[in-house]
Write a structure and sequence with these properties.
Blueprint lengths: L3 E4 L3 H13 L3 E7 L6 H5 L2 E6 L10 H11 L3 E3 L9 H9 L3 E2 L4 H8 L1 H10 L15 H11 L3 E9 L2 E6 L2 H19 L4 E5 L5 E9 L5 E13 L2 E7 L6 H17 L4 E9 L5 E7 L6 H8 L3 H9 L16 E8 L1 E2 L5 E2 L2 E2 L2 E3 L7 E5 L6 E2 L6 E9 L2 H13 L2 E3 L5 H9 L1 H4 L7 H5 L11 H30 L8 E6 L2 E10 L2 E6 L2 E7 L7 E6 L2 E10 L2 E6 L2 E8 L1 H7 L13 E3 L4 E6 L6 E2 L4 E7 L2 E6 L4 E6 L6 E2 L4 E5 L1
Parallel strand pairs: 1-2, 1-4, 2-3, 4-5
Antiparallel strand pairs: 6-7, 6-8, 9-10, 9-12, 10-11, 11-14, 12-13, 14-21, 15-16, 17-20, 18-22, 19-21, 23-24, 23-30, 24-25, 25-26, 26-27, 27-28, 28-29, 29-30, 31-38, 32-34, 32-37, 33-36, 34-35, 36-38
Length: 661
């Protein structure tokens, strides 16, 4: 076994690998860009090396700097994690030339499986089911249209070296192929340094199901069951689970056998994943093979009890797998959600800023948190906006989902926008609960983007009661402060009116020794809590069941968040509510004259000038964020009055790009 290893990555995956390495007794080396010198993964390692400036191309993607770091620190092996150089054959070759072990498959396997065109040919040769498509990369948009017509619409434009949803576009007609080809090629060039694009048939209402494989250098290859990864947004996975609620034993066995056959066909060694798309009749087709550790590997670890990172280290050191296919057992169910710094209300645009508050729940049974941030960390524009992964294990799928929902309810993040409310809403959705999934789930169920769900009567009563308790505790504190200052201080009342949108609830509170009995209409709820003003998490038992509600002050109101619901409530006395009803309402400002940037990013291009007539749907600007190009289009006909930004400008959220007359 190695004595010292280097982790060529950052964030949560670097932390996860470092923890296993330390448990195995290995000395560890972290690498960091100048933006990450104080990051948690650096603190976890025994030593660290600064690679260069924040842009990944000058740090985490700098092969020469990484090889030099391994040499200088005496690291015998390098684990690449995922992303960055994890599937880069040149990196593996450079390490081998330096006498350093790459913790992953051989160079040829990386090269062959990293090229989607070559991997498809190999899959066909190995007897693996594949999706109809162009045999080679298409040269330009005209060739892409010809290939698409030959295959039949709809089609998928895919970067040959792509992954993570980058360089992918769905096209349903010639015009969409022409538009999508350029964007897919540009994204592929920016993300992978390879702008080749190919075309393949798009399977309607598909499921994305992948098989985890593991192989050693002694001829042993096994699979560890499947992961369902169908909940995706822009082709990027959001929620994953193991096993799949859709597969039967026969399909699972057939998919596993084909995944193992493909791994053997390329002499695969290490952990890898063979991805399939599965149609409604359980026909499955090879999608790609990821020659690395997957982001969603924790769900496989939770149901198998195996540490994939440890096994990767042992295989890389020349050890044989300590088990065979017949020894693999799946125990229970696991579900994982990816927590991103993004704003679901703004089309999931990335959110940058400082993590002013950050706390992971503790003491939750079956919960697992993989993170690489700490309170005070900066979420910047240079790297993927994923903050953490939250996973939960249970005896049944239902139990795993409930445990994951509880973990998300208690996850405290402040300073940046995040997608926890959206994740909670997906987990609570009847279609998800029933396991009726497809990669179109989010597009189907949230066609106009994410809007927090409207609570039903029971949820409204519950959240109103919590809001009333919060307001009562604040009033108690204020009365106490007033009493200390001038000997007075008005005692809080026992009746409160909770208002949000067009809803109004009157809540009567009866103090108890450890909380309150809250009566809303005909319902009385026993709320037991020691919550105090200033605490962001309202932890309590309601009718004897534990629950956690997030509470934030928004001016004179409160933001109450729980289980995907997010309410901005006003809590006042009945007398104040009566007076407020007589006040006139101020209309919101009209911003329809402006094209606003929906995200922080770089203005790549601007297709408008003062005096130009614009038609609805016309492309106006391209904003790049996190290496993804986002096209902004006109929502209505109009004439451009003025430009407020120019290509090359860095934009803030809601910054005006142009103004209409």
């Amino acid at each position: 076994m190695f004595k010292k290893i280097l982790v060529a990555n950052r964030g949560e995956i670097a932390c996860r690998i470092l923890r296993t390495a330390r448990r195995m007794g290995l000395k560890t080396v972290a690498v960091a860009s100048e933006a990450d010198v104080a990051a948690p993964h650096v603190d976890l390692a025994d030593e660290s090396v600064v690679l260069g400036p924040p842009p990944a191309a000058q740090s985490y993607l700098d092969i020469a700097a990484l090889v030099a770091a391994a040499r200088e620190t005496g690291a015998e092996a390098v684990h690449p994690g995922f992303g960055f150089l994890s599937e880069n054959a040149a990196f593996a070759e450079a390490l081998a030339a330096a006498g350093i072990v790459f913790v992953g498959p051989g160079v040829e396997a990386i090269r062959q499986m990293g090229d989607k065109i070559a991997s498809k040919r190999l899959a066909l040769k190995a007897g693996v089911s594949t999706v109809p498509g162009s045999p080679d990369a298409v040269a330009d948009a005209k060739a892409a249209v010809a290939a698409a017509r030959n295959i039949g619409y709809p089609v998928m434009l895919k970067a040959s070296a792509g992954g993570g949803g980058k360089g992918m576009r769905i096209a349903r007609n010639d015009a969409e192929v022409r538009d999508g080809f350029g964007s897919a090629a540009n994204e592929a060039r920016a993300s992978f340094g390879d702008d080749r694009v190919f075309v393949e048939k798009f399977i309607e209402q598909p499921r994305h199901i992948e098989i985890q494989v593991l192989a050693d250098g002694h001829g042993n290859t096994v699979h560890l069951g499947e992961r369902e990864c169908s909940i995706q947004r822009r082709h990027q996975k959001v929620i994953e689970e193991a096993p799949s609620p859709f597969l039967d034993s026969a399909t699972r066995e057939a998919m596993g056998a084909q995944a193992v056959a493909l791994a053997r066909a390329v002499d695969y060694v290490s952990a890898g994943t063979v991805e399939f798309i599965v149609d409604r009749e359980r026909n499955f087709y090879f999608l790609e093979m990821n020659t690395r550790l997957q982001v969603e590997h924790p769900v496989t670890e939770l149901v198998t009890g195996l540490d994939l990172v440890e096994l990767m280290f042992r295989v890389a050191a020349g050890e044989a797998l300590p088990f065979g296919q017949d020894d693999v057992r799946l125990d229970g169910w696991a579900v994982e959600a990816r927590v991103y710094a993004e704003d679901p209300a703004r089309g999931f645009m990335p959110s940058i800023g400082r993590l002013k508050r950050y706390r992971e729940p503790v003491g939750l049974k079956g919960a697992r948190f993989d993170s690489g941030v700490a309170e005070g960390a900066q979420i910047g524009i240079h790297y993927d906006p994923m903050i953490a992964k939250v996973a939960a294990h249970g005896v049944t799928r239902e139990q795993a989902i409930e445990r994951l929902r509880a973990a998300l309810d208690g996850y405290l993040i402040r300073g940046v926008e995040h997608n926890i409310g959206f994740l909670a809403a997906v987990l609570a959705h009847p279609r998800f609960q029933e396991g009726r999934l497809s990669t179109d789930f989010i597009a189907d169920e949230f066609p106009d983007g994410f809007v927090p769900p409207v609570p039903g009567p029971a949820e409204t009563d519950l959240l109103s009661a919590v809001a009333a308790v919060v307001r009562r505790r604040v009033a108690e504190r204020d009365a106490g402060v007033g009493a200390k200052l001038d000997g007075g201080g008005a005692p809080p009342g026992d009746a409160w009116v909770v208002q949000f949108d067009d809803v109004e609830r009157t809540v009567a509170l009866e103090p108890q020794t450890d909380g309150y009995d809250a009566t809303v209409g005909a319902t009385t709820l026993a709320i037991r809590t020691d919550w105090r003003p200033g605490q962001a998490l309202f932890e309590a038992t309601v009718q004897g069941h534990p629950m956690c509600v997030q509470v934030d002050t928004v001016g004179t109101r409160y933001r109450i968040s729980h289980a995907g619901f997010a309410l901005i409530v006003r809590v006042v006395s009945p007398h104040v509510a009566e007076l407020a009803a007589r006040m006139p309402k101020k209309p919101p400002p009209d911003l329809s004259r402006f094209l606003l940037s929906p995200m922080p990013g770089l203005l790549v291009s601007l297709a408008a000038e003062p005096g130009q007539a614009i038609k609805a749907g016309e492309d106006l600007a391209v904003v790049e964020a996190m290496k993804m190009e986002n096209v902004l289009r006109a929502e209505r006909d109009g004439t451009v009055a003025a430009l407020h930004a120019a290509p090359g400008d860095s934009l803030a959220v809601d910054q005006a790009i142009l103004e209409f007359e």
